[in-house]
UniProtKB/TrEMBL annotation:
Organism placement in taxonomy: Bacteria, Pseudomonadati, Pseudomonadota, Alphaproteobacteria, Rhodobacterales
Pfam families with a match to the protein in the record: MazG
Taxonomic source organism: Paracoccus halophilus
Full protein name: Nucleoside triphosphate pyrophosphohydrolase
Domain NTP pyrophosphohydrolase MazG-like: 24-97, 161-222
Coiled coil: none
């Protein structure tokens, strides 16, 4: 760990460091941090265990990069990052590191965890129910967290059918917005529909990000099957048409279902 910190410091050295690394700041590195986190998740989803150490290392480098920039600015250092998360883990697990009983259900532990986080938010003067939900989260994930927060204080649909009714309503409003030719309004209505879809996922105990990742993987799989079928005939998708590719899609879909 010490060697990695020293390498990062050398890369950021104003006199002898790498010009690209020297030019970076928190805002420019943040997208890479998010990207590396997604690549970790991707390796896990693909069960590419041989790739996971490298992907985790890339993610760790992002933490080191941010900590180095903060250290240079006199804000905090890597030791502060480690100290913060160490204290948090101890404080959030009193049944392991404190005097609380470990003999409790997973559901009770989740409730206790949420109560601890609520106290932490109060200590940071986050008084609103929705305070502290990170703006940088993927939009679907943030929608889910916002809805979960609101649901804790009773602002929630009673059940999935109520959400389905709302989806039908939002779909009608989207059609009306499309016909109005107002693109800003159309975007707003499309966002409303996505937000309600995330709410339905929550009521059905589905992770919308995971569901969309699965849909992306399925689309990729079936489109590659189209490409393979056309390649067997010496052609590419641009040499085909929608009707033929739709038939090949159906064939790929039938093959997956056995």
């Amino acid at each position: 760990m010490g060697r990695l910190l020293a390498i990062m410091a050398a890369l950021r050295d104003p006199e002898t460091g790498c010009p690209w690394d020297i030019e970076q700041d928190f805002a420019s590195i943040a997208p890479y941090t998010i990207e590396e986190a997604h690549e970790v998740a991707d390796a896990i989803a693909r069960k590419a265990w041989e790739e996971l150490p490298g992907e985790l290392g890339d993610l760790l480098l992002q933490v080191v990069f941010h900590a180095q920039m903060a250290d240079e600015a006199g804000m905090f250092g890597f030791a502060d990052v480690v100290g913060h998360v160490t204290t948090k883990m101890i404080d959030r697990h009193p049944h392991i590191f404190g005097d609380e009983s470990r003999d409790k259900s997973a559901e009770q532990q989740v409730r206790d965890w949420e109560a601890i986080k609520a106290r932490e938010r109060a200590a940071k003067a986050e008084r609103g129910v929705l305070d502290g939900v990170a703006l940088g989260l993927p939009a679907l994930t943030r929608a889910l967290k916002l809805q979960n927060r609101a649901a804790r204080v009773g602002f929630d649909w009673p059940g999935p059918q109520d959400v389905l009714n709302k989806i039908a309503e939002e779909s009608r409003e989207l059609v009306e917005a499309r016909d109005s030719a107002d693109h800003t309004h159309l975007t707003e209505e499309f966002g409303d529909l996505l937000f309600v879809m995330a709410n339905l996922a929550r009521h059905l105990d589905i992770d919308p990000e995971e569901a969309l990742r699965m849909a992306n993987a399925k689309f990729t799989r079936r489109f590659r099957a189209i490409e393979a079928a056309l390649a067997a005939d010496g052609r590419r998708p641009e040499d085909s048409d929608l009707a033929e590719m739709d038939q090949l899609w159906d064939a790929a879909k039938a093959a997956e279902r056995g």
